[in-house]
Amino acid sequence: MAADSTGATGAYAAAGVDIAAGERAVDLMKRHVARTRRPEQVTDASGFAGLFRLDTAKYKDPVLATSTDGVGTKVMLAQAMDRHDTIGIDLVGMVVDDLVVSGAEPLFMTDYVACGTVVPERIAEIVGGIAEGCAQAGCALIGGETAEHPGAMEADEYDLAGAGTGVVEGDAILGPDRVREGDAVIAMASSGPHSNGYSLIRHIVDRAGLDLRAHVPELDGVLGEVLLTPTRVYAKDCVALTAEVEVHAYSHVTGGGLAANLARSLPGHLDARLDRSTWTPAPVFGYLAEKGDVAREDMEATFNMGVGMVAIVSAEDAERALAVLAERGATAWRLGDVVPGAGQANLTGDHPDA
Q: N or C: which end of the chain has fewer CB within 10 A?
């Protein structure tokens, strides 16, 4: 984990960059990063790059998959609440759960943290969250960068991004071409809004004059803390499911909502028919809709509404898929099925108690 430390210490410090703070942040990160180590990692004594040996004997035709993402304006909420230990989990979830859609096992990640001022303890909290997310995903955190940007960012501001790499057997790549009429659509529950729709969330909070630090009885918690609930990381569940049943496709439900994301995993001649009556969205979604006077169609076009990942499996494997996920402690249910159509995901019915 490198720190931006170019230039003479005295002159650079006068310009607003504290090299010593950056070096201390790196030292504090090391114990977090060590938790994510995988046996394929190769030590680079210089620390300028992360090295990872691909076990080519394990694959006939290894195909690398890569993804990069950030966490959007959810970082602003973390800063407002002065809570920095979970935002890194969000980052990992956004990256690795895109990788598994192709059927790939996430192998490693790198991160990038930009901030107005390096506060070592805060940077270590952020990276600690990234390491926790990597541990949940089973991938290694093999490198990264911390950059201090005085003048470009306020002292307490930061942003983060990450990139991940995975591997999938060439003849096992998942996607729309594998989906068949009659397939079962399996939903996996989200932990909340994950990392999407936070510009709308902040707009609702501001317009409705909501107090992020207030306890909200209907949410059974402090509003800001509920909104910071970290993204559920599905990577290990998806890798395990693919190994046990005939999975045809996955869809990671992020910005744009369930229907738009699932449509990306459908061929042009098939639809996914989804039934709202099969689940009740978490209370946070109803709370946001009420306080923001947001119509259902707008909520569904912005948020995951309680479904964070979808698996499309053969109809014969539907019950086994649910059993595998239940054994892993993942909340999942049959959301619908695949029918003739035009490559769309269509929601019907109403949520219980809606």
A: C
